[in-house]
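Hey, quick one: can you model this chain's 3D structure?
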Amino acid sequence: MKQKIYKNSIFIALAAFFVIGCDNDFEELNQNPNDPTAVPAELLLGSTLFNTANTVYNVFGSLDQGAGWAQHMAKVQYNDEMRYIPREGTISAIWDNFYRITTSDSQKMYELGADQENTAIQGVARILQAYGFLMLTDIYGDVPFSEALQAEAGNTTPVYDTQEDVYTGSIAYLDEAISLISAGGSIDASQDLLYAGDANKWIKFATSLKFRALMRISGSTNVASQLQATVNSGNLFSSTDEEAKFSYLESDPNANPIFETVVFGTRGEYKINETLVEYMDGTNGMDDPRLPVYAQENEDGIIRGKPSGFRDLPSPDYNYTNVSALGERFLSPTLPGYFLSYTELQFLLAEAASKGFISGGDSAAEAFYLEGISSSMTENGVADSFDAYVGQSAVAYDAAGALNKIALQKWIALYSQGMETWIEWRRTDFPVLTPAAENDLGSIPIRFTYPRDEQSLNRVNYEAAVSGQGEDRLTTPVSWDN
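Sure thing. Here's the predicted structure for all 482 residues.
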């Protein structure tokens, strides 16, 4: 049945849907041949979901930079990105794909839904637009929003909006989405590769994504009342059955991009990072049963990570056989691609309760915290070890150290979700990470630079953004990170 769904939504619907298949070609795949003008709105949904998930999980962005910079992943060869020298093609492709596919095709879906009087599909479109714009601003900082997606109307040089305005606009999209979906309409189950047409689950995705967005700006903006309202709505994820995750298939080109690159593309240089191993192997007081799931044993029968960085690799110290490969679960072609997980939401709720943003105080914070750990352990097949794990003093909830423990457990649980791990680590600043060895930057990157094309094709607005935000460097913080 799933094979039929994918075939209908991705390969038959229009003609030659833009498909990001093998990650080896990622830098070339930044053109969008989708240009529908009078087709059923829902025919855009399957391809938009697929391509958005692939953009988020593309290995050159999510592992080399996201998970690499957050010190979940390391490499024993081709190590420039891990030393904070990102490739321009990746920076440009992520920008282009979120604009040309996620937000642009969602806008077309929204407009077609209006023509067809289908408010539900309009709501879905707004959720995906909000997701795309939030990812863009979290990765790059100030980005085009209010004048974005107007090329067909003649505006090819959109102004950059401040991150604060992008967040305000994206949250408004999510509120609009909830109203539109609640008003009725239909979502074609065969095209809906997240929820098979279940409108209530889309409302829960919108509400949960809004909660994450509000938490992300909570350090710079008073959003406590809005956070409490999302909780009071009763529309947050209540189980893993409602989380927003993309189900990949068994074979190329419909498999998870990590499998596509590391296994199908035989790129075995990707390994687990020593920092993550030391937070899971008992070194820091936490004997974590998820570690044998996260990584395989090396040639000596142990799980050994590699520190970030180093120029001359492979070496006798760090090579293909003496550093542990990623765990088999995380090399599976069907590893889900998360837009937002139930597990992550529980840790966000725990943080909000601990900080007093939502009601319940430490009692609620502890419950959410433990539920996040339980959900992650269940997902990784080690639920029977939950009691022993949380009984360790380094894991057990305590009010004084709550925020650091919540951030650390979220960081551990987000393994394989490279971009989200890096973004949330930047926000919480925990765990404390040491910059990569033999890097030329001096500190861990906290944003992507803008694509070079922006400097030539939209230079006036690019320069205005840089003037307002700060130098276009990997070390310039975004607004919520100040």
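One thing worth noting: Residues 1-36 have pLDDT under 50 and may be disordered.
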